[in-house]
């Protein structure tokens, strides 16, 4: 009997981690899709005869879908089975990737990219929704950091590994393998994810009844008009810009065309950017839980990230590969302070509105991808002088400097936003 009780205790101890991190594999997978253009941007520009603005638009369709469906995703996840929603969204994403890999039409490529983005709207919110049910508040920053770490591992896979795979197999076959990975993750989620602990099923039903009485519009109003949620969303969007611009699409080309690194060498820098976030996310979360302070660490991360960004922008041609890799790693580490926005929002809103409230932050973060990737491409093309190499546009150092000014300006605004935030009461962190 003691053995059974011991086994039961062990299962209860590990089950929350198994459930939440099985679901977080969806977030890992979506970050591959979100950031894969850095590895295959040159291939796509050749395959569809694209310039920088068009490439930015093609990438941004993923984020347009996110923006449209994030408010709906939050409301659905607060009201219905998280497991069923994750499985449906992941399947839609796999269909979009398969279509993108096989089409030769730019219009269809945009449509399939949009489909993948619809699925992505649910990936992070579902993980946070599950974490809020399976873990106490005092662990939320650490768990959120680990969930984001899994996503950044996906972003890292989308850099050098995906570059080497695309060079070996071609980008279309690489994306078909990517779709197969999605089906494998589907099987894991189907097998292990549960909506909530058995003892909380009645509480979950009561929460769903409360939300039904509250109504969809009022729940959106409570979440999307909460100043704390809006400030956290703005902060996350702006501190995520290095990932959105250097990690997702332009980092490799920037280093190839300004520092004259090879494609493989240049792809290492975005990989180190993600590695920094992989390590920084849990560290920031753990420190925040220990200090019971969120905002102070967010301020520190923003200031250091601003300084690192200025060095990377101004001195790429004067830095060795080792120094560039270190700077990208450090930038990823300190911008990971953005993960603290999610527990800060979860603790600043009623528990029944967790997914809807966190969707505000995700809305801003994904909106940053959609807006700033397109803006970056437009700034790059604005003064382009017509240079081509291997059917790819070649941009000057000045072109990159002009476009990359988005980063320090964004960090300055993010820093101002932190001065208006407030930490939750310590009682909420117990």
TrEMBL record:
<feature type="transmembrane region" description="Helical">
    <location>
        <begin position="14"/>
        <end position="40"/>
    </location>
</feature>
<comment type="similarity">
    <text>Belongs to the major facilitator superfamily.</text>
</comment>
<dbReference type="InterPro" id="IPR036259">
    <property type="entry name" value="MFS_trans_sf"/>
</dbReference>
<comment type="function">
    <text>Lysosomal dipeptide uniporter that selectively exports lysine, arginine or histidine-containing dipeptides with a net positive charge from the lysosome lumen into the cytosol. Could play a role in a specific type of protein O-glycosylation indirectly regulating macrophages migration and tissue invasion. Also essential for liver homeostasis.</text>
</comment>
<feature type="domain" description="Major facilitator superfamily (MFS) profile">
    <location>
        <begin position="19"/>
        <end position="426"/>
    </location>
</feature>
<feature type="transmembrane region" description="Helical">
    <location>
        <begin position="84"/>
        <end position="100"/>
    </location>
</feature>
<protein>
    <recommendedName>
        <fullName>Lysosomal dipeptide transporter MFSD1</fullName>
    </recommendedName>
</protein>
<keyword id="KW-0458">Lysosome</keyword>
<feature type="transmembrane region" description="Helical">
    <location>
        <begin position="267"/>
        <end position="287"/>
    </location>
</feature>
<comment type="subunit">
    <text>Homodimer. Interacts with lysosomal protein GLMP (via lumenal domain); the interaction starts while both proteins are still in the endoplasmic reticulum and is required for stabilization of MFSD1 in lysosomes but has no direct effect on its targeting to lysosomes or transporter activity.</text>
</comment>
<dbReference type="InterPro" id="IPR052187">
    <property type="entry name" value="MFSD1"/>
</dbReference>
<keyword id="KW-0472">Membrane</keyword>
<keyword id="KW-0813">Transport</keyword>
<feature type="transmembrane region" description="Helical">
    <location>
        <begin position="60"/>
        <end position="77"/>
    </location>
</feature>
<keyword id="KW-1133">Transmembrane helix</keyword>
<feature type="transmembrane region" description="Helical">
    <location>
        <begin position="325"/>
        <end position="345"/>
    </location>
</feature>
<feature type="transmembrane region" description="Helical">
    <location>
        <begin position="299"/>
        <end position="319"/>
    </location>
</feature>
<dbReference type="InterPro" id="IPR020846">
    <property type="entry name" value="MFS_dom"/>
</dbReference>
<feature type="transmembrane region" description="Helical">
    <location>
        <begin position="106"/>
        <end position="128"/>
    </location>
</feature>
<feature type="transmembrane region" description="Helical">
    <location>
        <begin position="174"/>
        <end position="193"/>
    </location>
</feature>
<dbReference type="GO" id="GO:0022857">
    <property type="term" value="F:transmembrane transporter activity"/>
</dbReference>
<dbReference type="Pfam" id="PF07690">
    <property type="entry name" value="MFS_1"/>
</dbReference>
<dbReference type="GO" id="GO:0005765">
    <property type="term" value="C:lysosomal membrane"/>
</dbReference>
<keyword id="KW-0812">Transmembrane</keyword>
<feature type="transmembrane region" description="Helical">
    <location>
        <begin position="357"/>
        <end position="380"/>
    </location>
</feature>
<feature type="transmembrane region" description="Helical">
    <location>
        <begin position="140"/>
        <end position="162"/>
    </location>
</feature>
<feature type="transmembrane region" description="Helical">
    <location>
        <begin position="230"/>
        <end position="255"/>
    </location>
</feature>
<dbReference type="InterPro" id="IPR011701">
    <property type="entry name" value="MFS"/>
</dbReference>
<feature type="transmembrane region" description="Helical">
    <location>
        <begin position="400"/>
        <end position="421"/>
    </location>
</feature>
